[in-house]
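### Sample
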Amino acid sequence: MKVLVVGANGQIGKHLVSFIQDSNSLKAKAMIRNQEQASFFEKLGAETVVVDLEEDIETIAKAAEGVDAIIFTAGSGPHTGKDKTILIDLDGAVKTIEAAKAAGVKRFIMISSFDTRREAIQAASSSFAPYVAAKHYADEWLKQTDLDYTIIHPGRLTNDKGTGQVEAASEVERGEVPREDVAEVIVASLENETTIGKEFQVVTGTKPIKDAIHSI
């Protein structure tokens, strides 16, 4: 299975491409913003494609040609303004969903925010609310499609080394989770068709990742 990783040069994305390339059944196509980012992925033997998420649907769809699944891990980051939150976390996500449909790619995994329900938008701080709102509407857009989607809501992300153990369910208590473990959760979700049509929260826990995902 060939997988287009959108946001491959991000911290989750780099872990994810590494895990995919280590798999016997998966191959990564890393979507990056500029050619200078390519060397990391080329050393892993991964294919790369240079596309900016602010480009049009047709350009993203062309990048998705020949793949079997798309994973959206992109994010505007904590140091950008509300404009980039709208353009990347909302519009970029929606364009990628539409590109998947245009390219005939059915499997789509979205990395979202921990809680994107309407109540979470209302409860968020003024600086964080635009991000939660963007993720909320991107998630809702995906759920209204006929794509084979999975939406993953990770807890507070850390750069700690992965533990390989998580707690995953439709709702879990807030907590942290290493980005490396989130990447492994994505791979496990991709390999497990029981996650199709589902969304779940994930934090560090006591259950091996494959077992936790199998029980979703």
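Helices lie at 11-22, 38-43, 57-63, 82-103, 118-123, 129-143, 179-191, 209-214. This sample (NAD(P)H-binding) is used throughout the tutorial notebook.
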